[in-house]
Amino acid sequence: MLLVAEPQLGAEEEEALAQVVRSGWITMGDRVQAFEAAFSETHGAPDAVAVSSCTAGLHLALAALGIGPGDEVLVPSMSFVATANCVLYVGATPIFVDIEGLETPLMSLADAARKCTPRTSAIITMHYGGCVANGEAWREFARRRGLFLIEDAAHAAGADGAGSYGDAAIFSFYGNKNMTTAEGGMVLARDRATLDRIRTMRGHGMTSGTRQRLTERTASYDVTTLGWNYRMDELRAAIGLVQLKSLRRWNERRAELVNTYRVMLREYCPEVRVALSQLPAPSSHHLLPAVLPAGADRPAVMARMAERGVQTTVHYPPIHRMSLYRERFPGTALPMTEAFARHELTLPLHPKLSDRSVKTITMALVDALAAAPAVASR
Known about the structure:
Mean pLDDT: 95
Radius of gyration: 21 Å
Strand content: 5-15%
Largest sheet: 7 strands, mixed
CATH class of the largest domain: Alpha Beta
CATH topology of the largest domain: Aspartate Aminotransferase, domain 2
CATH superfamily of the largest domain: Type I PLP-dependent aspartate aminotransferase-like (Major domain)
Low-confidence stretches: 374-378
CATH architecture of the largest domain: 3-Layer(aba) Sandwich
Number of domains: 2
Number of helices: 13
Helix content: 40-55%
């Protein structure tokens, strides 16, 4: 089966884990600090805070910026549900914003402007598929309205510009991401005080951690703010340090594969478009989001491609159409998001694929689209 995503793991990661086990220190130590330093350097930031997940990082960022009950936060519905869930975690209200179009599934500035109210306090932009949203435009949008700006950079590790314009930016290292620590995330922030609050809040609001108390030979600590157990452990940080060394090369290979897809689809399946392909924006090329032609039976296409040994999936079911959010926010309509969600099909994209694999996937899609009507009519 040609999988949609597949982690790059090998002997170097095994040895890094073994070294942690042999060290006897497995949580919040030197490797976490080293990973934070290396990741921040890669993204041109002065510092970073490693956390247990991107979701944890989003929650911490909202809390550290003081977002809470009575506040509204503009969010994309074309994202993973955690983007909106984290707004609810702090007691604020997510306000769903439509995307720009079928080939540009990034949050719409125009619709965001329509959704602003006196209660709007923050915006969460999402670098869908790894394509970095227009930082200059969103920064100006937020500045003129006095809003905090948060980048959901879950897809964008290693992309030029990701993490550079928001008041905070949060990255994901989940198992299907461009680099992985199995679970884990990283937070960048423009303001040092905000990042320091996030660092304190990830560990229960405590003024010191276990390693710090060991090295400073003190058993005392205080709790100065409400916090959570959102720390990263040494095992994940060790994997992250190894993965980070290959991130740029892997992202470059992803870019090559995306270009091969475009050429193949243009030749063999021109009715299928690749979302985001027309944009000049930098990208980590996390996803290959194909837009199927109108009338295509997507479930039938997916089933036919699975028979040919090709996994496909959908990114994403719109958050505002999920039961929890339909019940809480009835009547929400986002026409472009809903249209994109009906037609999007995510094709395999990861560095283990060969150009030959891309042709196999393309021809499987051609076959599936041709056969889908017969499959659907049975």
